[in-house]
Each structure stands twice: as structure tokens, then as C-alpha cells.
UniProtKB/TrEMBL annotation:
SUPFAM superfamilies: Prokaryotic type I DNA topoisomerase. Belongs to the type IA topoisomerase family. The keyword DNA-binding applies. This is DNA topoisomerase. InterPro entries: Topo_IA, Topo_IA_2, Topo_IA_AS, Topo_IA_cen, Topo_IA_cen_sub1, Topo_IA_cen_sub2, Topo_IA_cen_sub3, Topo_IA_core_domain.
């Protein structure tokens, strides 16, 4: 309810009336977005494959597979090609024949039925479940909601099979099984709920029609296959050598089709017949060539693959899995593409990325699995119901409150993807990664967004942002921007990247250049810091180099501003320090016509706090800080003690003895 109310009406193109969260539904969407992210980040690699053909007879050829499979180095691949081309004959190194078995399927449960319905019949899980329920209520199949894949010992398998003896599609197979004797189904999993899904009475296509018949036909064929014999085939593997390189070809011949007669889609594919040969035989090489290929990204998840992942991670039950998948489709988080593949929409992607940004456990399957384990312990009598309930509610309550407090993180992603303001945002500064212009989005929370890198950078709030002289950060090459709270307030430059990713250990997220400890950058605290703040304990007064001709220095922690040297032509922070208070000295250059210095002097260097020449030129004020979100908020007024000593860049903070502090405070007031 919270996220729906928060985002509804705020963005015009969400295309979803309900923005829902669920401990099963959201991890289900998470699987789809995780696959999408892998596809987006995939970088194809080129590789080479050596393909050889031999001619066992004049008019026939046999394609061989290279034992090395592939190599990723063109020159190495070319070397192997040159070596093998030197040999005109392929020598048979070994011939092996092995009888193999393809096992008949386990009895049918709900999850497997839904997987097949989606992958083979093209039915969505919810639709397939509705059809199965209708077939059950009409008496054609057994109860369709079951996790069991094992028939009980007293189940009348022959009785169910006899009912299918007259159906023209499988009558021959059924009668053969009844006369020769059925095979006992494989031992599966007994969940203790209901027997596997089984046809309970005969039906025709005319009776059921459409999707009803297609699902019934699959259930019946699957049941007949479970009591049929396994499929047996003979696999022949011939190993060849062409020069020093080894090649192989494999052939399969079915000896007993077994259950594949009733489920032909599981049958062993027909392959080219292998020649009769023995070790040491030689065959002429018809062709050897190098094939250049590329690795390909994974495809979007199919519904069948998603069901498998949900079952593996304990997300949902046989009854609820179709509901969760249907929810993420109906709420426009994913769209069903051809092949019933699930492609996340922008809304689905932003939701999942937002959850990851705020609290990854909201989208990971772990929290739901943990709850399921607790429920199992209750069922086994190993855990107290009330304690588990209280503990689980407490976890979700805490997660909810944290989510509410952190919603701005998701809002940033939402606005970039959906708000028309994001589309109309103005290019402001260049990204240090791609050197393209980033868009400045003014709507709260204001931020910069690079559409090329798909990165969003938070900015200080409740002020104006503009480009800072096209200067760049020496650490990451991002163009600096200037934040200002107005003519009466503070202003400072900042690097968008450093503001979000602090470059030094003693820095925190949300610090501008006036708190940056870079030792040589001309915009940093190290180069522009003057002395310890006269009010708060931890702040440093930093020269605002953009404030001329109404020069000022401002505390980088609280709202103290010191105006000085009005109409000065230039103000610079000197590397030298005051002998009395250890604050940095200031070099001031005035215009000759407006110089307040005695004797018509235009230049003077001294301490802002101690130099008697500067005393009449310094004025303390408090910035009108309208923004509670801004770092520092209202200044700490209790700080009157000693400073923390030496500050970055080699300069030191003023010592601020008590008698001097009292004198300074009295003077400024």
C-alpha cells in the first residue's frame, strides 16, 4: 500500500495501477530481472572451432567433433588447422559400443504439469491450472494439486490403464502393456498429500475440445509412459586422429523404444549411421576448416525455467506458483514473449533494482525460504507457533520502516525511468566515464543522470546547481558542479562521483569539495581551508572562491558564514600559518580605488582572526539554511573547546584558547 500510494499519480507512464510487493511474488520477478541484467551485461567473445570431415565411402561423408571443442585465440586455432592439414588420412584410434538407458518419467505432479504445459503446449501456468481444475471437477483426472511423484502400493494402475484401451491414439500401446504386463512406476517423492495426477476416465477430443483435450492428452500419455519400459539404445563412439589432433563422432541406434512410443518427443533423434570400422583403419580426409563463432548471451527465462527456479528456492507451493507468475504478468512487471519467455518491463526492472538498492533481502529468495523452514519446524513440533509468528512479524515490521525511510533510493530510479521531467531534464555537466553530458533533474530529490552509462548521482538538496567553470575533478574526470543555497547562504563545488562514492577513508557519502581531503586539488579543504569554526567543534571555515567581490568563508559543518574583504580583487589562502592561532594566512589584493588598507596599499597578508588590519573587514553571520536534508543542518553552538589539531594538507587548525574565543565571539556579535 505504501509504495503504491507513494508512486501512484506521481508518474504518468507507470502503466500499472498497483505496485505490489510479496515475499513470493517479488523474488519471482527478481529471477526474471536477474536474467535480464545478465543479458544486458553480456559481452560476446569470438572463438574458433576445427571441423573435419572424413569419407568412409566415395559418396558419403562423416562430420567429426574436435576433442578440444574450441579455442579463443585465432593464432592458436590457425596453428592447429595447419598441423591437421598436413595429414591426408584419419586414423581410427578406438571404437566403443555401449548400451544406454533413457529412464521413463516419474509420475506427474503439479509443478511438472505446469512446466510441460508452458514449454510444450504454450499454456500459461494459471490457464493450465484452471483447465486442470475443470478436468478434475468433471471427473476426467485426479486432484491436480499435488507435490507427490510416487504411487501408493495399493493404487489400481491396471484399472486406470484399461479405461484407455479403446482410444485410437494409444489403444495399441495400452493393449500391448496389458497383455505383456506393466512395469512398476519409478519410486518418486511421497509428500503425503495426494496421489500423482492420473487420468480417471476415458475421453475424446470432441468431448473436451481445444486446450482441455491437449492437457488431458498429455496427462494420459505421461501416465501410460510411467508404466511402460525404459528406452534402450546402443551408443557407438569412434575416436579418430588426424595428425596429433583427436576427433570423435557418436552414433545412437534404438534397440527398444519403450516409453518413447507414447511420448515421441522424448525419442532418440535419428543420426547419420556410422561406418563399420576397427582400430587402425584409415579414412581419407575430405575437408578440414576453421569455423569462427561467437559466444551468445542467455535468453530470457521461460515460464518452465522460472517454475524450476521457484521450486528449487522454495518460492511458493504447487498451488500458488501459477498465481505468482500470473501476478507479475498482470501487473505489467513482465511481458510474455514468443516461446513463453518472460521479459521484464521498465517498471519490473526499476522495482527490483530499487529493492536491491534499499534492502536486497526484499527481492532475494532467502527470506521466504527462512520462513518456510520455520513453518516446517512448527509442523514437526520443534518450534513454537507464537514465537515464530512474533519473530517474523517483527522482521517485516523493521524492514517496512526501513523501506519507508529509504524510499528516496527507489524514487531516484523511478523518476529517471518514468517521469516526464527526466525526459525534459537539461544537459548540465559531463560524465567522467563516457564524457557525454549528464542530465540535471531538478525535481526532488534533484540528481544527475547519465543515460549512456545508466548511472544516477545524488546531489545536495534545497539549493541551486550549476556548472562550475567546466573544471574537472582530478580523481575521476567528472565536471564539477556548484551548489548554492542563495546569496545569503553557503555555496561550494562538488564532484558528482566523489559526492556519491567517497574517494578517501576519512570522507563520507554526501561530502563536497569543501570537505575533501585531497592534498593538492585546488578546490579541496586542504587548499581552501582557513581555520577551525568559531562555533562548532568539528567544522572548518573554508574560503568560498566563487563569492567575490563579496567574499566569504563558510563552515563545512554548520551554518556559520564569515563575510570579509568586500570589493577585494582577489583573495587566496596562503600555505603559511598564523603564529598565534595556527590558522592559515590569507593573501588579499584590493582594487586601488576601493582599498580600505592604510596608506593606499592594495595588498596585505595576515590572519583573519588575529591581524589588526583585518579586524574591521570581517563580519560573522549565520546562513539561512532552509534545508533539513543538507549536511550539517543547524550549527552546533556548544563547541568552544580546543580543535582537533593538524588538518589535511599540512596546515593546522586554530587552537582557539578560551580567552581568545570569548574575545572573538564578543567582537563578531
Amino acid at each position: 500500500r505504501f509504495q503504491t500510494k507513494y508512486f501512484q499519480g506521481k508518474y504518468g507512464n507507470l502503466d500499472s495501477s498497483l505496485i505490489s510487493f510479496g515475499p513470493c511474488q517479488t523474488p519471482t520477478l527478481g529471477f526474471c530481472v536477474e536474467r535480464h541484467d545478465k543479458i544486458q551485461s553480456f559481452k560476446p567473445e569470438t572463438y574458433w572451432v576445427l571441423q573435419a570431415k572424413v569419407n568412409p565411402e566415395k559418396e558419403s561423408s562423416l562430420t567429426l567433433d574436435w576433442d578440444r571443442v574450441r579455442v579463443f585465440d585465432r593464432e592458436v586455432a590457425q596453428m592447429f588447422l595447419n598441423i591437421t592439414k598436413m595429414s591426408k588420412e584419419a586414423r581410427v584410434e578406438s571404437v566403443s559400443k555401449k548400451e544406454k538407458v533413457k529412464q521413463r518419467p516419474l509420475a506427474l505432479n503439479t509443478v511438472e504439469m505446469l512446466r510441460v504445459a508452458s514449454a510444450a503446449l504454450g499454456m500459461g501456468p494459471q490457464h493450465a491450472m484452471q483447465i486442470a481444475e475443470r478436468l478434475y471437477t468433471q471427473g476426467y483426472i485426479s486432484y491436480p494439486r499435488t507435490e507427490t511423484t510416487h504411487y501408493p502400493e495399493n493404487f489400481d494402475l491396471k484399472g486406470c490403464l484399461r479405461q484407455q484401451a479403446n482410444n485410437p491414439y494409444w489403444a495399441e500401446t495400452v493393449n500391448a502393456l496389458l497383455s505383456e504386463g506393466i512395469n512398476r512406476p519409478r519410486k518418486g517423492h511421497d509428500a503425503g498429500d495426494h496421489p500423482p495426477i492420473t487420468p480417471m476416465r476415458a475421453a475424446t477430443e470432441a468431448e473436451l475440445g481445444g486446450d482441455g483435450w491437449r492437457l488431458y492428452e498429455y496427462i494420459t500419455r505421461h501416465f501410460i509412459a510411467t508404466v511402460s519400459a525404459d528406452c534402450k539404445y546402443l551408443q557407438t563412439t569412434i575416436s579418430f586422429s588426424i595428425g596429433p589432433e583427436r576427433f570423435t563422432c557418436v552414433g545412437k541406434v534404438v534397440t527398444s523404444p519403450g516409453f518413447t512410443e507414447i511420448m515421441p518427443w522424448h525419442s532418440i533423434p535419428l543420426e547419420e549411421s556410422l561406418p563399420c570400422c576397427e582400430k587402425g583403419d584409415l579414412f581419407p580426409v575430405g575437408e578440414i576448416k576453421l569455423l569462427e563463432k561467437q559466444t551468445s548471451p542467455p535468453d530470457y527465462l521461460t515460464e518452465a525455467e522460472l517454475i524450476t527456479l521457484m521450486e528449487k528456492h522454495g518460492i511458493g507451493t504447487d498451488a500458488s506458483i501459477p498465481v505468482h507468475i500470473n501476478n507479475i504478468c498482470q501487473r505489467n512487471y513482465v511481458t510474455v514473449e514468443s516461446g513463453r519467455r518472460l521479459k521484464p518491463t521498465n517498471l519490473g526492472i526499476v522495482l527490483v533494482h530499487g529493492y536491491y538498492k534499499i534492502d536486497a533481502e526484499l527481492v532475494l529468495p532467502t527470506i521466504r525460504s527462512a520462513v518456510e523452514k520455520q513453518l516446517n519446524l512448527i509442523a514437526l513440533g520443534k518450534a513454537n507457533y507464537h514465537q515464530v509468528l512474533e519473530h517474523t512479524l517483527d522482521i517485516f515490521k523493521r524492514k517496512f520502516h526501513y523501506f519507508v525511510d529509504s524510499i528516496a533510493g527507489m524514487d531516484e530510479l523511478m523518476e529517471v525511468s518514468f517521469s516526464p521531467l527526466a525526459a525534459t531534464g537539461k544537459p548540465l555537466s559531463r560524465c567522467g566515464k563516457c564524457h557525454r553530458f549528464m542530465k540535471y533533474i531538478q525535481a526532488k530529490p534533484s540528481r544527475l543522470h547519465c543515460s549512456h552509462c545508466d548511472d544516477t548521482y545524488s546531489l545536495p538538496q534545497n539549493g541551486t546547481i550549476k556548472l562550475y567553470k567546466e573544471l574537472r575533478c582530478p580523481l575521476d574526470d567528472f565536471e564539477l558542479v556548484l551548489w548554492s543555497s542563495g546569496s545569503r547562504g553557503k555555496s561550494y563545488p562538488l564532484c558528482p562521483y566523489c559526492y556519491n562514492h567517497p574517494p578517501f577513508r576519512d570522507m563520507k557519502k554526501g561530502m563536497g569539495c569543501n570537505e575533501c581531503t585531497h592534498p593538492t586539488c585546488q578546490h579541496s579543504l586542504s587548499m581552501l581551508g582557513i581555520g577551525q569554526c568559531v562555533e562548532c567543534e568539528n567544522g572548518v571555515l573554508v574560503l568560498d572562491s566563487t563569492s567575490g567581490p563579496k567574499w566569504k568563508m563558510a563552515c563545512n559543518k554548520c551554518n556559520v558564514i564569515v563575510h570579509f574583504f568586500e570589493n577585494a580583487h582577489k583573495v587566496r589562502v596562503s600555505p603559511e600559518t598564523c603564529d598565534l592561532c595556527e590558522a592559515a594566512l590569507v593573501d588579499v589584493d584590493f582594487n586601488k580605488a576601493k582599498s580600505p588598507l592604510p596608506g593606499d596599499e592594495t595588498q596585505h597578508s595576515g590572519c583573519v582572526f588575529c591581524d589588526p588590519v583585518f579586524q574591521d573587514l570581517v563580519e560573522l553571520k549565520h546562513a539561512s539554511m532552509r534545508h533539513p536534508m543538507h549536511r550539517g543542518g543547524q550549527g552546533k553552538r556548544q563547541g568552544r573547546g580546543r580543535g582537533k589539531g593538524r588538518r589535511p594538507g599540512g596546515r593546522v587548525n586554530p587552537k582557539k584558547p578560551k580567552d581568545k574565543m570569548a574575545a572573538l565571539a564578543a567582537y563578531f556579535v
